[in-house]
């Protein structure tokens, strides 16, 4: 009876065979890359068996087949079947029941020319009997096991935006055109990609060189040659001569300082691939731009009358010619400009504006004039106006009659030497709609043009204080009256007592003393006396 039972146990175990509980591939070395045919992997495959099953030892026992899968248990579709040619030692690995044994040093290759990493994140091993196992045996259980693979797509480590000359953009313009090259460097251990319509480029403006503070992202139109750039791992590639139409609407120069370009994968690429970056900035690059606003090259003011006079109020008529750079920005809107007319001690307008000697008006906001949409703004010391400058180039502003507001240059207590220059300052109205940048040809926002205004001081003889036909002669800062023979005194208002009289009896020189009837005789030929009436020797 005992012998019978032992025989039945042996028969039961023989029927169960080698029962595999798990197959676990372990990658010892290697990784796989998109776009490569021979991705080499070195694996060990651990086989854990049921202790109630059989053990097996012999030759040619095992076969292994590898495949790629999108599931960690190997279920579902299988990709790229890889039958591994086990050597005689690997194929003859003995496995004892209830143990875990490894088939080591298994070499396999993976073809990722048409597959991407997200499609096949796992490599799976399926254990089978060898073609001619010795001894033959029954193999059952879970024969498939998977492990994640180190799969690498195209990895960009650096990109560079290059211009042949420094980039220039005009603010608030839709017609900026820039041509650039975009240089790419990929990781030598990453994947490669070859095909058509692989790439997209997008541009955006930014306030910072690291592309923070970015504006709306706009696609760049690429040619088929540019978008089809093949990129081999570790080999630099360049998307050349890209022409981008850059719109800066509605931004002003203060709202951006850099143009940035970023590489993206084209969703319509002829071959699928994975694109990643080694760091946050590897796919994009920014370059500083020169921004141009409205650029005034010259102001040419003119005033009427052509000459002013000190000692009085001078009512002025003012007009202004404005010259702008054709390469600068245009602006159109309302309440755009502010003009200030003022006196100054320096020819560049940065000296002293003399109190009491500025253009004076009452404080008022004047109504719109419908020609060219210009508006006048007046304050207690200056007069301002706004106007539309719709296209770059030469613009003559409409004639402005400051007298109407009213305006005058009050020089009642000044001389011409105290107001050497009269200046005009053009600036952007703080209430302008839209906002814009206004600079001169040197980039300065303070646009001032000064000139010497012909000025005449009143003549000291203008009021002609000289009397009785006397002649007034200007002398230094004053005047002198040249009297006729019949009158004397500072203003020739006193009758000359020596005129047509014989006050010195013909015996001396008569000199008037400047007061009525007062004179002195200077006697000659020995005569004496108050009137030289005493003969010599008497």
From TrEMBL:
Signal sequence annotation: none
Cysteine pairings via disulfide bonds: 483-492, 504-521, 523-532
GO biological process: establishment or maintenance of epithelial cell apical/basal polarity; heterophilic cell-cell adhesion via plasma membrane cell adhesion molecules
One CC-aspect GO term: plasma membrane
InterPro entries according to UniProt: EGF, Notch_Cell-Fate_Det
Boundaries of every EGF-like domain copy: 457-493, 494-533
UniProt KW keywords: Disulfide bond, EGF-like domain, Repeat, Signal
PANTHER family (alphabetical): CRUMBS FAMILY MEMBER, DROSOPHILA CRUMBS HOMOLOG
Protein name: Putative neurogenic locus notch-like protein 1
């Amino acid at each position: 009876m005992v012998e019978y039972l032992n025989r039945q146990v042996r028969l039961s175990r023989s029927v169960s065979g080698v029962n595999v509980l798990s197959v676990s591939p372990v990658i010892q070395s290697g990784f796989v890359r998109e776009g490569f045919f021979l991705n080499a992997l070195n694996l060990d495959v651990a086989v854990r068996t049921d202790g109630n099953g059989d053990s097996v030892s012999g030759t040619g026992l095992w076969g292994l087949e590898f495949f790629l899968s999108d599931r960690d248990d190997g279920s579902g579709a299988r990709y790229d079947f890889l039958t591994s040619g086990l050597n005689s030692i690997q194929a003859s690995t003995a496995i004892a029941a209830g143990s875990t044994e490894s088939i080591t040093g298994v070499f396999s290759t993976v073809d990722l020319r048409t597959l991407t990493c997200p499609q096949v994140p796992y490599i799976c091993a399926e254990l089978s009997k060898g073609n001619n196992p010795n001894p033959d045996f029954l193999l059952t259980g879970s024969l498939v096991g998977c492990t994640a693979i180190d799969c690498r797509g195209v990895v960009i480590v650096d990109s560079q935006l290059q211009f042949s000359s420094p980039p220039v953009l005009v603010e608030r313009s839709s017609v900026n055109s820039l041509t650039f090259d975009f240089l790419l460097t990929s990781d030598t251990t990453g994947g490669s990609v070859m095909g058509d319509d692989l790439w997209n480029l997008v541009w955006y403006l930014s306030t910072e060189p690291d592309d923070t503070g970015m504006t709306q992202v706009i696609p760049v139109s690429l040619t088929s040659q540019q978008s089809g750039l093949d990129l081999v791992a570790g080999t630099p590639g360049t998307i050349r001569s890209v022409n981008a139409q850059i719109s800066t609407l509605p931004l002003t120069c203060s709202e951006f300082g850099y143009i940035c370009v970023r590489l993206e994968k084209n969703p319509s690429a002829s071959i699928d691939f994975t694109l990643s970056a080694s760091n946050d900035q590897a796919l994009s690059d920014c370059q500083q731009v020169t921004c141009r606003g409205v650029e005034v090259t010259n102001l040419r003011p003119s005033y009427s009358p052509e000459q002013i006079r000190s000692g009085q109020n001078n009512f002025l008529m003012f007009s202004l010619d404005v010259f702008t750079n054709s390469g600068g920005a245009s602006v159109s809107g309302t309440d755009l400009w502010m003009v200030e007319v003022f006196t100054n001690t320096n020819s560049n307008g940065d000296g002293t504006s003399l109190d009491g000697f500025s253009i004076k008006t009452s404080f008022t906001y004047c109504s719109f004039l419908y020609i060219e949409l210009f508006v006048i703004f007046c304050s207690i010391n200056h007069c301002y106006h706004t106007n539309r400058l719709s296209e770059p180039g030469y613009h003559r502003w409409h004639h402005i009659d400051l007298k109407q507001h009213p305006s005058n240059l009050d020089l009642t207590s000044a001389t011409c030497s105290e107001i050497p220059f009269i200046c005009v300052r053009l600036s952007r109205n703080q209430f302008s709609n839209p906002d814009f940048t206004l600079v001169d040809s040197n980039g300065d926002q303070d646009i001032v043009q000064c000139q010497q205004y012909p000025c005449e001081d009143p003549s000291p003889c203008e009021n002609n204080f000289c009397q009785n036909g006397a002649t007034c002669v200007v002398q230094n800062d004053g005047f002198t009256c040249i009297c006729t023979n019949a009158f004397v005194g500072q203003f020739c208002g006193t009758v000359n007592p020596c005129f047509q009289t014989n006050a010195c009896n013909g015996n001396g020189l008569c000199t008037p003393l400047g007061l009525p009837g007062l004179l002195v005789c200077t006697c000659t030929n020995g005569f004496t006396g108050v009137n030289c009436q005493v003969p010599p020797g008497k």
